[in-house]
Structure formats: structure tokens, C-alpha cells
Task: structure prediction
Amino acid sequence: MCGRFTLTSADEDTLIGGLPFDAFSETRIQFRPRYNIAPGQRSPVVYLEKGEPVLADALWGFERTGSGLVINARSETAERTDLFRDAFREGRCLVPADGFFEWRREGVLNQPYLFRREDGGLLLMAGLRRGERFVVLTEQSKEAVAEIHDRMPVLVHPQCARDWLGEGTLVSTSGLRRTAVSPRVNRIENDDPDCLRPLAQSSFEFD
Result:
């Protein structure tokens, strides 16, 4: 699952500089650093328009009658699922992030953990876009995430990002570090650097 993520690039130029593409046909975003992006909120996505990569804002979550927002799609079945089939064929996108959160119950506390690349670089989450909305594809968790949650975003290998957008070929990557962070992130109205404040790892033990 992916229920919150971060995109803390200083500005749009910095964001574009971290993407594995040389040019964009246009940009249509009003960018600011984000520390706690939640479902129903806007965030940049990258998709192909006439063969060229475009950066644009989109709302996180597909609307489904009677079920509220659907924010994730299983990568193993999305291509065959009614809600996602058309978007998988015609609306593949990348959702830039530099971290995502998962939670583990620690006594009475629902403890958030932040996952980032070892080198602190940009993550490219595989997504599906329909109109001005997107969902994040998920897969079985790997490595540092597996102890916290059984699902995680599909992180597209940068060298294969164009293949995902153009052909639907999905090659994921891993290599993440895990940090226990402030419970401030548990409230979606909190969106500031303090959400990423590390907590002492010695307080947490894993089975």
C-alpha cells in the first residue's frame, strides 16, 4: 500500500533535474515542497503526450461510486481489472516522490516509518492516470519495507522509466533505507519538515 508520500524538491527546476528525461513538452504545475502528500491532494505526475514527456498536476485517487477514493492498484492484476484496465493501456504515468510512509503498530502508537533511497535521490513510483486523477501501483514488499507492511509502491528503475510510459514494460528497483519519524505525519493537516524528524531507532524492536 502507499497512503502518503513526500516530494520535497526545492522548486520545479530541481524536480525536473532529478527526472531521467532531457526535456518536457510543457509544464503545468504550481510546485512547492511537500512533506505529507495525502489521498485527494494534488501532486505532479509524468506521462507521454504525442511521444514527449509532460509534467502536470493531478489529484491522487480514482473516484468509485460507493467506495470513496481508490488510491492504489495492484500491479499484478491492474491490467485485467475493470477500474484500471483502460488507464493501464492508455494512462501510464510516473509519480515522482523522494520518500513514502508506512505504519507499524508499536504498543498504543501507530508509528510511521519513512522510506527513501539510500542516496536520497528521487523515486519514480509507477502510476495510472485517468483524466486529472492518478493511482499508485503497488507490489509485494521488499527488503526494508517488508518488516513494516506487505505492500509497497512499485519503484520504476530510472533507466526503464520511458519503457513503462511508452510500452508498459515494468522494471522495479529497490535499495531503500527506513527511518522512524515523528507521529506528526499521522495528521494530514501537518505538512512541514517536522513530519520527517527522525526518532531514536533504539526504541523499536522487530519480531
